[in-house]
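Late entry, zinc ion complex.
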Amino acid sequence: MECPCCESELAYEDWYYTGNYSAYEKGYEDSGFKKLGDIYKCSNEECDYFEEYFHTRNNDDSQLFEGYPC
Ligand SMILES: [Zn+2]
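Prediction complete; structure with ligand written out below:
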């Protein structure tokens, strides 16, 4: 995955979700847990005047969005 600003390789940073992850790990069916997508960070220091985080939404065909998801 490449940075849409500077085209350097994005580093995998984290993933994000909705619901109760610890309840999901314990096997509760009503945890509401669902993985929403992945978070990437641009490693290029010259890129820091842009938003340096990017995220994808799994339901959105892994398209990159600028910024950290709220
Ligand atoms: Zn970049």
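The helical segments are 21-25. Will revisit in the morning.
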